[in-house]
Amino acid sequence: MTTDVDYDIIIIGAGAVGLAVARALAVRGETSVLIIEKEMGFGQGTSSRNSEVIHSGIYYPVGSLKAKYCLAGRDRLYDFCRENDVWNSKCGKLVVAQTGQESQLEALHRQAETNGVPELYMMDRSEIAAVEPEVSAESAMFVGCTGIVSAHELMSAYHRISAEADHDLLLKASVVGAELKGELYALHVKGPGDADYAVTTRWVVNAAGLHSDRIAQFLWGSDDSSRPVLRYSKGTYFKLSGKWRHRVERLVYPIPDAEHDSLGIHLSFDQAGDVKLGPDAAWIDDRSEDYTVNVEDGDIFYSEAKQYLPSLERDDLSPDYSGIRPKLAAETMKGNFDFYIKHEPDYPGWINLVGIDSPGLTASLALGEKVAEWVVV
Question: For the segment 150-179, what is each residue's pLDDT rounded down to a tens digit?
Fold first, then answer.
């Protein structure tokens, strides 16, 4: 750190992506790093309210940033978990098609092959029943490279590497303004408590999740329609009763819901084998962060999951949790929900990571390494 600047690099947001950036900078020997997080701890937003799936890369259009970074991050993530004792399971998944959906499954299979996703296998009804007796479908695509991971353990490992490089983590603090002053950025920070101050830096990495578009607006204002703006999508989960523990060994996904950019109400499980369904997807146009789970939504979850879990009973479902995903508003009109990742040419030293929803957890290592490549101190 030099005398005329507080930190060489400031990362806004301590979710999976922000922490992965810090980890990548630590590996490169960068020590003058501050991470600013508005919550009481790291990883308490979108990064901890998801399915914890290691995605394969089958869903994303060829050439999209989601495809690029998911494919680049998937195998890195398995390696990182093995090297850092992070719990994970390469359990694979079934994408199931009911009668009349076979053509959609075939199209998804073609896209998966085009994206270069390995370990794909098409299955008929009898083959599905042989490997997953609880699952009923006309056909399925098995994706062997899909898995699950403990998001908390993963983020803890990222943070440990960052902390070992003497990075600072400022909690319960929010960036409320930013100004370019010569070659430095001055960030206006409030918190913890009544603290109100400015901190200067050469580089800003905006990984603020649900608030990343508004952090970017500190530079370019809110009137430029060409700039990224977020729209919130809320997803709810219901858990299944204990009798379902370990009854399904692979993740189970229906055909995706393109209208809501959702992978559908799918079945996943955690380290203990506890099974959950979700998420659904509902737009939140007032950008409220309401994580309430409506009990009556369980009827919808039941009817959707019953299609591929015929022995499911309504009483098996109970409310679990919800998450909110940041999606680019302009993209919701076109159905092409991609990441916005850019070292802004008009603002040297400012990197925006906006609209990082799924597969952000899978892509986090690759995203962090890309950002670290851009940063030159």
Answer: 999 999 999 999 999 999 999 999 999 999
- Nearest residue to 29 (alpha-carbon basis) of 8, 12, 43, 2: 8
How do residues 28-60 score in pLDDT, each as one tens digit?
A: 999 999 999 999 999 999 999 999 999 999 999
Parts of the chain with a pLDDT under 70: 1-3, 259-261, 331-336
The Cα–Cα gap between 15 and 30 comes to 19
| Count of structural domains, the chain | 2
pTM over cut 0.85: yes
- Asked if residue 279 has a cis previous peptide bond (ω within 30° of 0), the answer is yes
* Residue 11 belongs to domain spanning: 7-48+153-229+337-374
For residues 371 and 353, give the distance between their C-alpha atoms in angstroms, rounded to a whole number: 9
d(CA 7, CA 24): 17
Backbone angles phi, psi at 233, to 5 degrees: -125, 120
Given a contact cutoff of 8 angstroms between Cβ atoms, the answer to whether 198 and 187 are in contact is: yes
pLDDT value at residue 86: 98
CA 150, CA 32: separation in Å to the nearest integer? 29
Q: Is residue 256 part of a domain?
A: yes
- The secondary structure of 49-111 as a DSSP string is SS--EE--S-SSPTT-HHHHHHHHHHHHHHHHHHHTT--EE---EEEEE-TT-HHHHHHHHHH
Are residues 136 and 234 located together in one domain of the fold?
yes
Rg (CA), the chain: 21
Integer Cα distance of 280 and 286 in angstroms: 18
According to the model, what pLDDT value does residue 336 have? 63
Confirm whether 253 is domain-assigned.
yes
Distance CA 18, CA 22 (A): 6
